[in-house]
């Protein structure tokens, strides 16, 4: 079985090396783990640091296209690399690579097609109050639209079955967090959240600016919910 862990990255030279070095390569004897970096037009030493840290594959956007575009490319490249499971983790060292085995376990057991590392089911260190409120608001909106309970709809640590990777659609380049979950759950893919330990970044800067985030994300949510989607017939991973 092949697991590809991909990191969308833009100017993350200070953090990406440690994230890559912490990714477990020995999960189970029958699982091979590969690391893929999606460099979204970095102008610093992100690519050099990622190679030095042991990244197996680097895919580059020649210009900065946005986090949504980088995650879309990551999912496509996982399929190209013939991954059975794809794992996305932010390159800013806020999420715990050591918990990747926990994240993929529901997919391996056939219990879920799409998992998210949940900060609010786990432990959070250093998140400021305005970010907590923003997370609660966007998560609540997803709960209302999907009529299901979600604890953390903005997580930067997720895993996908092969079928979820093939069918996932991200309709805007700016971000992926909400529209990806709305798209997959509306298509009938099974979502499960896994508690994780989260630490707010200590290096670099977040790209999120509240006004710009609202301007881009809210219209994208409306657009996604107005699109017809076809519920898919899914195979279990054991059938591959």
The number of helical runs is 8
Basic shape: globular
Order of helices and strands: EHEHEHEHEHEHHEH
| Rg computed from alpha carbons, rounded to a whole number of angstroms | 17 Å
Name the poorly predicted regions.
Answer: 235-240
Biggest sheet features: 7 strands, mixed
Domain Glycosyltransferase 2-like: 5-167
Organism: Anoxybacillus gonensis
Protein name: Glycosyltransferase family 2 protein
Pfam families: Glycos_transf_2
Observed structural traits:
240 residues, alpha/beta, 8 helices, 7 strands, disordered C terminus, Glycosyltransferase_2, Glyco_trans_2-like
Outline the structure in words.
The chain is built from eight helices and seven strands, in the order βαβαβαβαβαβααβα. By secondary structure, the chain is α/β, with parallel strands linked by helices. The longest helix has 18 residues, at 129-146.
Task: Show the helix and strand layout.
Blueprint: E1 2-9, H1 16-22, E2 32-40, H2 46-53, E3 57-61, H3 67-80, E4 85-89, H4 100-108, E5 114-125, H5 129-146, E6 157-161, H6 162-167, H7 177-186, E7 191-199, H8 210-226
Parallel strand pairs: 1-2, 1-4, 2-3, 5-7
Antiparallel strand pairs: 4-6, 5-6
Helix pairs in contact: 1-2, 5-7, 7-8
